[in-house]
Design a protein that fits this description.
317 residues; alpha/beta; Rossmann fold; UDP-galactose 4-epimerase, domain 1; 7-stranded parallel β-sheet; two-stranded parallel sheet; 41% helix; globular
Length: 317
């Protein structure tokens, strides 16, 4: 029975990945900075809290990682930790860079110094590509990061590539485009939209307050994307991959679809607040996931309005 270690198991992707790996027969360990101080509500909701073994670990401390690796001896390590909000990274750039870059460096260095044969997955991001325009990004598209979060993820990408090439570590990066589920916290705009629409449909007289709704993104469902993570880790030749649905829509259309699913007209409930516009904003983000289809046998099952409909159905008030 293989053993997997999920760093940052308390988030959206961590819980869904743990569920997938348990179904595949893995022994699953998960880490958080302080397991005694967290509730792990996502694991409870998924019905797997009692099946995941938890350890406290701080990826900013090399000794903390080494201790966990020695105790767990994992076959696969999935690094999903670090600050995960693009918007928050403008307010906390130093913390964002530290949690992503130093955390990734410490994990890689732990694998190098212990000569571990564990396979390593690093959570990359579409934000690395920056503005794609109408030309979808592939694995060979140049990076043009414009947010502190994107800069940190781009650095982590090259850290992984460097350790893979220099030290022979089986390390991969999944360049994941936007992926959502009911586990997204309200600070994410997609969750904000869906939860607000459902509250208004239930009788609330509030307004949905948004910034730039003309941005275009590729959104998929997180349950599909954790499957892509696992598939990427099973390749005998470690490689990086763009993981996306291949369909991009505007945030305006996303919000319209959410309100339509609730029997509402977005125009009756929307207010634009210029204060919510980001200092730097990617206007258009598109992806070509054809390599994932051909080399991993993976494709997204949901995108566009169909994805929004599913999110409305599964997201609680």
């Amino acid at each position: 029975m293989p053993t997997a270690l999920i760093i940052g198991i308390s988030g959206q992707d961590g819980g869904l990945l743990a569920q997938l790996l348990l179904r595949k027969g893995y022994t699953v360990w998960g880490t958080s900075r302080d397991v005694e101080g967290r509730t792990f509500a996502n694991l409870e909701t998924l019905g797997i809290a009692g099946r995941v073994r938890l350890r406290s670990m701080n990826a900013l401390e090399l000794s903390s990682i080494l201790n966990v690796l020695a105790d767990v001896n994992p076959d696969e390590i999935y690094n999903l930790g670090g600050q995960s909000s693009v918007g928050l990274s403008f307010d906390q750039p130093a913390e964002t860079l530290s949690s992503i870059v130093i955390g990734t460096q410490n994990i890689l260095e732990s694998l190098r110094t212990t000569r571990s044969r564990a396979r390593f997955y690093s959570a990359g991001s579409s934000e690395c590509f920056g503005e794609t325009g109408a030309l979808p990004a592939t694995e060979t598209t140049a990076f043009r990061p414009i947010s502190p979060y994107a800069v940190a993820k781009a650095c982590a990408f090259w850290q992984v590539a460097s350790y893979r090439d220099a030290y022979g570590i089986h390390a991969v990066t999944g360049l994941l485009f936007n992926h959502e589920s009911r586990f997204r916290p309200p600070r994410f705009v997609t969750s904000k939209i869906i939860r607000t629409a459902k509250r208004i449909a239930a009788g609330s007289d509030e307004k949905l307050v948004l910034g730039n709704i003309d941005i275009i993104r590729d959104w998929g469902h997180a349950a599909d994307y954790v499957d892509a993570m696992w598939r990427l880790m099973q390749t005998e030749r470690p490689r990086d991959a763009v993981i996306a649905s291949g369909t991009s829509i505007s945030l305006r259309r996303f919000a319209e679809a959410a309100f339509e699913a609730c029997g509402l007209d977005l125009g009756d409930h929307l207010r634009i607040d210029p204060a919510l516009f980001r200092p730097n904003e990617i206007r258009e983000s598109r992806a070509d996931p054809s390599a994932a289809r051909t080399e991993l046998g993976w494709s997204a099952s949901l995108s566009g309005p169909a994805l929004v409909q599913r999110l409305v159905e599964e997201t609680p008030l």
